[in-house]
């Protein structure tokens, strides 16, 4: 009888030990799983942070580097380019001579290309360009639009000569005094085209007198 009781106690102790081991293992397993999941979550958050910075940092850093000169030039170039295209389009219908019509077509083609390049720069830099003429340029356009034939030819070629002299000076100033390298490069490479426009405008002006 005594031996039976001892045997029962031994079995009970053995079962208790096994339960304790199982509980310890489960607890350890749960802790390990939780730590793994938490670590994965932190890892994901850490991975996302640089991506967010990369998505927003590039444009803002370029915009922050723009000087007052850069912004003044970009705005003036955008409005000037728009006016050149609009006036060139008028020349196709309002001009009297074939030479002035041809001058207008060249202005539309070349300034549309330059305008697109400036817009591409602005998109990359995160800079907002003006989308309409200022009051002065709008008045010049409206006055020119009212003219026809020989009167149009004289007025248009006068404007093209005076405006391109002004444009060349502004583009050269940006090329030498600007801060943002891509905008300076755009200004510098556009100067020869503007100088060609001035030369052709002076020829057309002489023929229109």
UniProtKB/TrEMBL annotation:
Region (Disordered): 173-209
DUF4142 domain boundaries: 69-201
Key words, A-Z: Signal
Name of the protein this chain belongs to: Putative membrane protein
InterPro entries, sorted: DUF4142, Ferritin-like
Ranges in coiled-coil conformation: none
Polar residues composition bias: residue spans: 178-191
Annotated signal peptide: 1-18
Regions of compositional bias (Basic and acidic residues) in chain numbering: 194-209
Record keyword Repeat present: no
Alphabetical list of Pfam families matching this protein: DUF4142
Species lineage: Bacteria, Pseudomonadati, Bacteroidota, Flavobacteriia, Flavobacteriales
Source organism superkingdom: Bacteria
